[in-house]
Automatic annotation (TrEMBL):
Record keyword Chaperone present: no
Subcellular location: Membrane
Protein species of origin: Datura stramonium
Domain of life of the source: Eukaryota
Name of the featured protein: Very-long-chain aldehyde decarbonylase cer3
Length: 495
């Protein structure tokens, strides 16, 4: 039996949960077209619009942070947990934005109850000071207290374990929690906002700023790469007690009994829950960020297929990366951006790291040639593509990569002879340049015992079959070939 308030009320709605934003849109559209001049109707209209704008901005903050954290070509040397994010985690965090909908509903209820008591100007500098004081004095200790309680046996097993079920923290992990936890978190966010407004120091800019900074800092703690330089804390030592780092919060995910604070480590110091490795580990990661990490054992050199598939990259729309390729209607407005990006990549970009995974203790990386599929069929683009591939091969050789595999059009016979162009040009390469056919041939030959004297090949004659047959002949193995295409008595050939 599920614990009370552990599941979201709209879990069964799927994507239809976004229809719950409908009343906000309908109220805004209706009121904006209404000729009624009552002041409260205008305020209601304005607030519905502000709530919708804030929701869009919050989604943008989380998505931007997630894109940044998955740009491995920028963050690979700064990653804290070295493992990659698998599709299971992506699926589990699919509804990460539930809390935005919840807080939109709670915020609208708060407005309707207090709309006659609150007057919000566009700007009031005093409000920023008041909300900062309320956050430090109330929200920070309140969050610390509740967070520590949620690490108790019952609350952790029934509620907080969902948040910790993500093996690699990501910005979307910040929103991945149960309904009860986000009700409490909504109260923690709401207290400084409500308090500032009731004291008469509230403003629209203050609300926008506080909510978005709150989300920004939550994403910072879950981004899984160290972005704050250690020199900052060496210059201003006390600052490390006022702002946490990604390393600091990652330690909470790996060693759950420490580092409970919201954003300010001073509360862990006061509560004696500070992980002693926090700043030492942060300094180490920050220093090592300029050094290359582990050299991959295998590199798969891919390319971009088309504009639609480009949006399935983990650092564009992460959720698309875990679903079969398909074109969504809401992606169509982004196609002009992809089109412009294609020309920018054509002019300036180099081969970059896209994804990686570990298999049987070996590191496998996918590097991408910044070219789209149709560009491989443009005669004037062939030289530039081959230069990109050659640079990637030489880079892999310099790093000490054992094998680099050319994918799809990168091994086009008309383009570079299946990679022979580069092997012949650089005969002293230590890295093995292969592609799908050579890898398949290698696997088949590996399965043939060394003491075999005769091999029977069946099937239509192919480039792969010819390569296997010729290699076996060099080993003095007798090869018999049968081609079933011809409806005649089997024809056996001796090589």
């Amino acid at each position: 039996m599920e614990a009370p308030l552990s599941t979201w009320p709209w879990d069964n709605l799927g994507s239809f949960k976004y229809l719950l934003y409908g009343p906000f849109i309908a109220k805004w559209l209706y009121s904006s077209r209404s000729h009624d001049d009552e002041e409260n109707i205008k305020e209601t209209t304005t607030w519905c619009l502000h709530i919708l704008i804030i929701c869009v901005l919050r989604c943008t903050v989380h998505s931007a942070w997630n894109s940044f954290s998955n740009m491995l070509f920028l963050t690979r040397n700064r990653r804290i947990i070295k493992e990659g994010v698998d599709f299971k985690q992506v699926d589990n965090e699919w509804d990460w934005d539930n809390f935005i909908l919840l807080q939109a509903i709670m915020g609208s209820l708060g407005f309707y109850m207090l709309q006659h008591q609150i007057n919000l100007p566009l700007w009031d500098l005093r409000g920023f000071l008041v909300i900062t004081i309320l956050h430090i004095a109330i929200s920070e200790p309140l969050y610390y207290f509740f967070h520590k309680c949620f690490h108790g046996k019952y609350l952790f097993n029934n509620y907080h374990s969902l948040h910790h079920s993500s093996p690699v923290p990501q910005p979307f992990t910040a929103g991945h929690a149960t309904f009860l936890e986000h009700i409490i978190l909504s109260g923690i966010i709401g207290i400084p906002i409500l308090g500032s407004c009731l004291l008469g120091y509230g403003s629209l800019t203050m609300i926008y700023g506080y909510v978005l900074i709150f989300d920004w800092l939550r994403c910072l703690g879950h981004c899984n790469f160290e972005i704050i330089p250690h020199q900052l804390f060496q210059t201003i030592p006390f600052l490390k007690y006022l702002i946490y780092t990604p390393t600091y919060h990652n330690l909470h995910h790996t060693e759950k009994g420490t580092n409970y604070c919201l954003f300010m480590p001073i509360f862990d110091v006061l509560g004696d829950t500070l992980n002693p490795k926090s700043w030492e580990m942060h300094t180490k990661l920050s220093i090592e960020s300029d050094k290359n990490g582990r050299v991959p054992d295998f590199v798969f050199l891919a390319h971009i297929v088309d504009m639609s598939s480009a949006m399935h990259a983990p650092f564009i729309f992460r959720s698309f990366a875990s679903t079969p390729f398909c074109t969504r209607l809401f992606c169509l407005p982004f196609l002009p951006i992809v089109f412009v990006t294609m020309f920018v990549m054509w002019a300036y970009s180099k081969v970059f790291l896209a994804t990686f995974y570990n298999l049987r203790g070996r590191l496998h990386q996918t590097w991408v040639v910044p070219r789209f599929g149709f560009q491989y069929f443009l005669p004037f683009a062939a030289k530039g593509i081959n230069n990109q591939i050659e640079e990637a091969i030489l880079r892999a050789d310099k790093l000490g990569v054992k094998v680099i595999s050319l994918a799809a059009l990168n091994k086009n016979e008309a383009l570079n002879g299946g990679g022979t162009l580069f092997v012949n040009k650089h005969p002293n390469l230590k890295v093995r340049v292969v592609h799908g056919n050579t890898l398949t041939a290698a696997v088949i030959l590996k399965e043939i015992p060394e003491n075999v004297e005769e091999v029977f090949l069946s099937g239509a004659t192919s480039k792969l079959g010819r390569v296997i047959a010729l290699y076996l002949c060099r080993r003095q193995v007798r090869v018999l070939n049968y081609n079933p295409t011809y409806q005649t008595i089997p024809n056996f050939s001796y090589f």
